[in-house]
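Re: beginner question about structure tokens

> Can someone show what the tokenized structure looks like for a real chain? I only ever see the sequence side.

Sure, here's an example I had lying around. Input first:
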Amino acid sequence: MGSQLALRGVGARRQDGHVPSEPWLWLFLLADMTVFGLFFGAYLWEFGSARDAFTADANALYVPLGFVNTLVLLTSSLFVVRAVESHRLGAFARARRYLTGTILGAGSFAVIKLGEYALELAHGHGLTSSDFFMYYFVITGVHLMHVGIGTSVLVAWHRSLRSGHCAFRTRWVEGVAGYWHMVDLLWLIIFSLLYIGSPA
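And the corresponding structure tokens:
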């Protein structure tokens, strides 16, 4: 059965010239990242106009929590890479184990982020307290929404592997992985911009 699946391309290794996922998904990811790019551009414009105020507010962020979340997402991306590799080979039980790690990472990220929000709000830093915190809550909030969407499709992929086979095509799971890598990349930019670059 495994060899038949491999011959059909479900568990086959990538061929030379293979482009992961579907072309339309890359257009979607590009459009999504363009929206974030506009957020980042607007933030940098405002930062340049009120650098001292933005820097003072940025120093109130909990950098260690942001750093931990960065490590969490990087680790989850590594797991999703391994899950895709296993899926291509038809090793669905192994893919499911890696996906478990990715989903746990996504949940951990969300818990830490919500905890960080609670800390900021407890210290009087809300959406309307300053321009910096308006951008902080909007940008990280939209990103957290993307984490939730990504987690939903990861869970769907994970559930499909319970019976030892998968109804989803390889290109579909490559698309899920591509979306998760985008979530990871966006967080790296957010962490670098808000947590590291702004307080400097």
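Each token stands for a local structural state, so reading them left to right follows the chain. Residues 2-197 form a domain with the Four Helix Bundle (Hemerythrin (Met), subunit A) fold (CATH 1.20.120.80).
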